[in-house]
Amino acid sequence: MADETYRNDAHALLRAFNHRSELDSLLDSLIPVLDSFDRLRRGTENGPVPKDPAALLETFGRIGAQLESAVAHAGLLGFGAPGDAVDLDRYRIVDAVPGGGVREDTVVEVLRRGYEKDGRVLRSAEVIVAERDEEQAQ
């Protein structure tokens, strides 16, 4: 009985250590993202906001890519793209529009990407799908 208790305690400690290690790794990968926001903030606090909106959008795009990379490193993967076949375990259909030659139940627009980790859906993608055209019905 004592051996089993010891084994269970050891497994619990190992799981806690692994969770802590994963969390530390995630936080470490988010630091460069925070640095990017700090640089952006400093740039706007010490002077006027950049006059070139394209440059500002490019900066936000780079920071977004850093963030996506950091969370992907931790195992969080985004899904949902136009052209995907709808899987109701992973997608939430918000609306349907005429297909215009696109196959029925195919994603035509993604309103919010879905996210999964280790094959488990954390949030379903919210999508607009093609509905059956009259041409497809014939």
TrEMBL record:
Phylogenetic lineage: Bacteria, Bacillati, Actinomycetota, Actinomycetes, Pseudonocardiales
Key words, A-Z: Chaperone
One Pfam family it belongs to: GrpE
Organism per entry: Actinophytocola glycyrrhizae
SUPFAM superfamilies: Head domain of nucleotide exchange factor GrpE
Superkingdom classification of source: Bacteria
Protein name: Nucleotide exchange factor GrpE
